[in-house]
Design goal:
This protein has 175 residues and is mostly helical. Helix content is 74%, strand content 0%. One of its GO terms (biological process) is response to stress. Residues 121-167 form the RNA polymerase sigma factor 70 region 4 type domain. This is RNA polymerase sigma factor.
Length: 175
């Protein structure tokens, strides 16, 4: 987080390369997060680019007591929701990274497990899908997820508990 703050301060001082480093660092995650809302890679890419452009123009709105990633994801969420309000809502397509493995058999089992979990996550309510993505796959804290999802900490704790419980029930039905 301190590295991000240093880059932002450098950018505010006139060093555009600092902002380019932030884009390089967060671009893939930004697109992936937007994709959770849009289910369209090209639209997700546009939303991520628009979000970076918004931050570039409005960098003075950024408060350094929040992580840059939280700020970025909040903007992406808002831009995605704005777009979805204009369109018919689409279900979320959860993207789960393949588990690492040491041999082909483990890789096959890993892919099957990933596909099973991905399929079960897609059956969850959208809020459950988003909270699992933010907490489990992006590594956001509960507080950061609360800011991104415009909920209070108590609501986030309940949401993640219910999402995990529902996912566990769905997965237990597969055993």
């Amino acid at each position: 987080m301190q590295e991000d703050i240093d880059l932002i301060q450098s950018f505010k001082a006139g060093n555009d390369e600092s902002f380019e480093l932030l884009i390089k660092k967060y671009r893939a995650n930004a697109i992936a997060f937007a994709f959770k809302y849009t289910r369209d890679f090209f639209i997700a890419e546009d939303i991520a680019q628009d979000s970076f452009a918004y931050i570039y123009v409005n960098i003075d709105n950024y408060k350094e007591n929040y992580s840059f990633k939280t700020y970025l994801f909040t903007i992406i969420k808002n831009k995605s929701i704005d777009l979805l309000r204009k369109k018919v809502p689409l279900p979320l397509n959860e993207d789960i990274n393949s588990l690492s493995s040491f041999n082909v058999e483990e890789e096959i089992i890993s892919r099957e497990t990933t596909n099973l979990v991905k399929g079960k996550i897609n059956l969850l309510k959208e809020d459950y899908q988003r909270i699992l993505y933010l907490i489990e796959y992006e590594g956001f804290s509960y507080e950061e997820a609360a800011k991104i999802m415009d909920k209070n900490l108590g609501q986030i704790k309940i949401l993640i508990y219910r999402a995990r419980k529902k996912l566990k029930l769905l997965l237990e039905g597969e055993v």
